[in-house]
Queue: 3 jobs
Job 1
Amino acid sequence: MIAISGVTKTFQRRGGGTHLAIDSIDLQVAEGEFVSILGPSGCGKSTLLYIVGGFVPPSRGSITVSGRPVTGPGPDRGPVFQEFALFPWKTVLGNVAYGLREAGMRKREAERQAEALIARVGLKGYESFYPKELSGGMKQRVAIARTLAYNPAILLMDEPFGALDAHTRVRLQNELLELWERDRKTVLFVTHAVDEAVFLSDRVVVMSRQPGRIKAIVDIDLPRPRHRDELLLQSRYQHLVIELERMIEDPPEEIRP
Ligand SMILES: Nc1ncnc2c1ncn2[C@@H]1O[C@H](COP(=O)(O)OP(=O)(O)OP(=O)(O)O)[C@@H](O)[C@H]1O
């Protein structure tokens, strides 16, 4: 469904010079697949996601989604990025219904659909709250509901749970898996947390740092549906976590002996 071929991104440095952020990325993601991109800070994970989203053009290479070249953002790719904050002046209901109204849906129908989505992300009863009245985890759920409202075939998620406390993070991971198991949307999920990548994904793409290149692609051959408590005890899960941790902990290439 997503085909990334030879994608390279070079940024202009302020004050002159260039910075090679990602180099020659080739990756194919099948319909309904959950793929995580894992790597150290600054390796270009977000850049790759923004390029797939059509928000940033690649310097070289190409992306196609369902065979069509990506030339800009589109309703087939739903971003859940931290930078896309909620509208502070709109309620939870208003935030989730916004895209549906923009797409021309009548107010009552947009609100009915938004209410159903709010319930799906576990926020029933919070429809009339404003973002400032919500916790970080609740805001993130609203952001997910807002994106789901477009019904995109692909979800692009950039460390959606990165800023949350450990407990909320685990809860939202479970909720995301439940949603995914029901809808089987294609998900490209950026994270630097190994356990999160293993728990959620079908495959984990490990990136090296500076410039970001694909170092390895690891199949997460753990059965689904996955239950965290059971998974943590499985030796296969532990093995995968250790294997991936070793891969991302490698020293940067330039200081390798
Ligand atoms: N608009 C830009 N202009 C110049 N350099 C940029 C720009 N965006 C990103 N970079 C650089 O590209 C590299 C990759 O950045 P990116 O945000 O994609 O990394 P990341 O792996 O997502 O990092 P993190 O995990 O810390 O969010 C970094 O060195 C960053 O400084």
Note: The pocket of adenosine-5'-triphosphate is lined by residues 11, 19, 21, 39, 41-47, 192 (CB under 6 Å).
Job 2
Amino acid sequence: MIRLAANLSMLFPEHDFLARFSAAAAAGFRGVEYLFPYAYEAGELRAALDDNGLSQVLFNLPPGDWNAGERGLTSLPGREAEFRDSLVEALRYAEVLDCPRVHAMAGLLPEDADADTRAAHLATYVENLRFAAGELAKVGRTLLIEPINGRDMPGFFLNRQDHAREILARVGADNLRVQFDLYHCQIVEGDLIRNLEAQFPHLGHVQIAGVPERHEPDRGEVHYPALLERLEALGYDGWVGCEYRPAGDTRAGLGWAAAYGLTP
Ligand SMILES: O=C(O)[C@@H](O)C(=O)CO
Ligand SMILES: [Mg+2]
């Protein structure tokens, strides 16, 4: 059975962030994810989870200077020390939140990147991922990489599913897996069922949203019932993150999720 997690960075924008936990639980969610926990004390977030019977299923490492446009540190040459510090911070939160997986965003390539610059990013990415996977393995957690479309994040280093598999092979760590966001995959390459099948042995997490507006999964060009049916048939037993911007009231737009056991 598909287990849906509420992405609290996007769902329930009607509420302040900390009030989104109870809103998600009231809508029937048992798991939550969000981009970043760092604006809050870990204990405060732990209490929000416990008070509402929720599990933390995913969050991201600190991404560098988000407001200045940075989108991850993992492939940035010269920022290795900062990446390692960000890992320590993420691990501290992961322990308090009992979160089994964290996502290390790749970061952006410069607009005019030549072959040498790309090669430097690739080498840094692989080295940082290998180090981080090793640290996470010591505490039994999983590291994720996510291909993201270049329309939403121009210059993002990792866009394609086959590139993610190539990175996994280069790093060679069992606890490094793919965060497969079907919204991004549809925009970059389509062929979702075949891509899902190819990625299945490497999946660590799945996310969904309608395309192209990133609204509810039952809006737009992607037929999610077929995709989720295939995912179940493949034997996926992880979480599926609802990472979309509701077109209206979040709760009113969750009718599609009843088919996957989400009941208030
Ligand atoms: O798809 C996304 O945008 C997220 O999953 C993420 O981690 C980076 O923004
Ligand atoms: Mg995503």
Note: The domain at 3-260 is CATH 3.20.20.150 (TIM Barrel).
Job 3
Amino acid sequence: MLCQRSLCIFMQPLCNKRGFAMESKFDLEVCCLRSLKELELKGQRVLMRVDFNVPTDKEGNIIDDTKMRAALPSIEHVLAQGGRLILMSHLGRPNGKIDEKYSLKNLASRLGQLLAAPVYMAHDCIGPEVAQAARGLQDGEVLLLENLRFHAEEEKNDPAFSRELASLGDIFVNDAFGTAHRAHSSTAGIADYLPCYAGFLMEKEVEMLEKVLENPQSPRMAIMGGAKVADKLGLIGNLLQKMDVILIGGGMANTFLKALGKTIGKSICEDNLLEQARGLVEEAEKKNVSLILPLDAVVAPELSAEAPGQIVDIDHVPAELMILDIGPQSIELFKKYIEKASTIVWNGPLGVYEYPNFARGTEEITRAIARSSAVSVIGGGDTAVIVHDMGLEEGITHISTGGGATLEFLEGIRLPGVAACQEKAARGIGAELGQGAPLWEKS
Ligand SMILES: Nc1ncnc2c1ncn2[C@@H]1O[C@H](COP(=O)(O)OP(=O)(O)O)[C@@H](O)[C@H]1O
Ligand SMILES: O=C(OP(=O)(O)O)[C@H](O)COP(=O)(O)O
């Protein structure tokens, strides 16, 4: 059994200036995750949540399968032990509607190649035919369910939906660390209906991030970029309590730049978050945290591989262009901060790294982090892809499959996907010791 020490850390202040430590709200007993290793799997229907939310192109082809490979140890273990594996994941944000672009069919074929074994693909994730397919599995066989987010109930953590998913398996294994910050049916609600275990990836992520939390040295720095601005802007408020420096690039920077009165042309921006961004800048000043924005940018008329990039000062972004990368002056400035940092947490590319014209900022920053002697954690599907593509894994302390999940974990926020398994484990232990009624039911 693995004790999630991030929760234990809540109990004792460990850090000096802007500590990661928080007050304990939870029992130590609740910290425990039960491991997949503990299970007798032969003949068991193992319902496993994985995070196969891989980067894809416009046609839905997989750009990078790192997240799938990361789940292979758990998948291969279940199959080797004679378990009957039912895999479930989301892909993208189809908003509760069926959209072929977000089908998991391509992932089933890729998984088949990775396992060198057949992978059955279900046409949905619930319903009588899916239940029949799950019941029909033989020992060592694997079925991949269709995108969970084709049903709006998934993101609502709807109990009836959780129950229907749970009815497909005998045991629930959560190996989706990257989605553990979402309280959804397949990550949280499902724990009410099945015995819960952590997969190997979930265990590894929690262990590695706990190590980083143990004694994070100052100067501590966060680098924030990417496109999920609405999701992650709020997290900067928490980071201000824990970091000495926050570098902001990528799509994230635009909202801050506009909030500070700069013209950002056609760049992506969350106009409804301008007030919040201004508040964060003021709070950073009060807390004496250096919140650093780009000095210049690479701009282009459209987001495409062919669009020509042009370097402009951040005060002179033309109205008809969009910011697609940080410029050379910003790269130099960011590198200076990276050289001085002792702890670095990074999520989100600093530009549209998928296209060479706008990849330089992200690549240079990746190299600088890999060269630095700081303890470094890089999180997020896209951000991790860059490190792998550049072959710089060795220089990074931990490359996490989760972006938002990693940030929230390091900020001391309890992740619903981890918490659901912990609470269930703690209650389950009591039940197994005869201290209560069985806590899960099979339908
Ligand atoms: N200036 C920008 N404008 C538009 N998109 C951007 C910009 N900078 C980065 N991005 C995009 O952000 C995406 C990754 O964002 P996100 O999902 O938040 O990161 P991660 O998957 O690492 O958590 C990439 O597809 C990248 O092209
Ligand atoms: O890719 C993910 O998160 P990330 O981009 O923060 O790493 C997860 O699969 C969660 O996806 P979501 O942010 O659509 O809930």
Note: Residues 431 and 438 are 6 Å apart (CA to CA).
